[in-house]
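Hi V.,

You were right to ask for the full record rather than a summary. Here it is.
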Amino acid sequence: MNSFKKITTLFSVLSVVCGSVQTALCQESDTLARYSNNTITRKPDKIAEYPGGIPELMKFLNAEITYPQEALDNGIRGMVVVEFVVCSDGTVCDVRTVRSVHESLDKEAIRVVELMKKWTPGQSDGMNVSSYFQLPVTFHIQTKEEQKQARKQKRNKNFQKNIKTLGN
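Predicted structure:
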């Protein structure tokens, strides 16, 4: 974290849209057994969900993602979209990028998605089903000007808080 003292990073997960659930047939024989009925459902009645929902997913990503040094050094930022299958048993598999920014950011997004615990799988007709899920992950480095603004806002907030304390 020492090289990150002067650079603040912000990772955000954008809202996941129902349209991110897509269809496909399982084509790889080694993963075929993971899917019920050998298919990945296009639009389940209920989409797969990370335990605790989007807020917990964002906490997980923020805690686990490390900004790659190469990207940091070169000022590379942007949104990587990772697609994966939430299998009918809740495991995450077949992780890949569908929107790339830079190899180092792509690899980091995939690495963290592969660390995820079991999800609540999607359901169709009351049965757990395997479904695709797309997760946008934004990598952002604050510029020096943004850092300066953040420090100024913090100082102003602390100043106002101290004045209120003195007034009481």
